[in-house]
């Protein structure tokens, strides 16, 4: 959407939500509408697409909610964090602390009763609300009382002490922006990207390398069934 990178003050493409005004995040719902004037309010370039035609992919919202929950839980709940370390031994400690999970891993935690035993009362309330929203709003099924469920999630996250991320913000003042049928929005490509990047990070042994993304793009290009590659013979070089 042409927003500047990094920890921007106004990172929502719909409104001028102040990401640094932490005292107002769960209390203020009506933020000024964004105007797309280049050079102001963190806007570097004109939008490439009409903002009203942008979809909020449910998978990214789910990953963001999981990340916020785990980061907050990990500050005080050592038992819960150590349980996840044992459950996902291939994930680095840094990624676990940041709550970086993919869809299948989140579903594994959903089905794990031992993880829930490590949670406090406030954490359990937030965890149940998160599971409910995933099953009744961010999936193929949309309950008639989804607004009450989302409100319960926001209240539980606030009591738990979760910082409001951009993904949480979308659920707060922009709930009407989500399409009526979230199940019609395919997350297949997004799911594949996160799983492929996780495999790519394993190849790089968990260390960030600037060539990682280009390596991933080349892999997609190479695996394209419409492309035909022919190995040059030795004589072609002379």
TrEMBL record:
Tree of life domain: Eukaryota
Keywords assigned: Receptor
Official protein name in the record: Receptor-type tyrosine-protein phosphatase epsilon-like
Organism: Oopsacas minuta
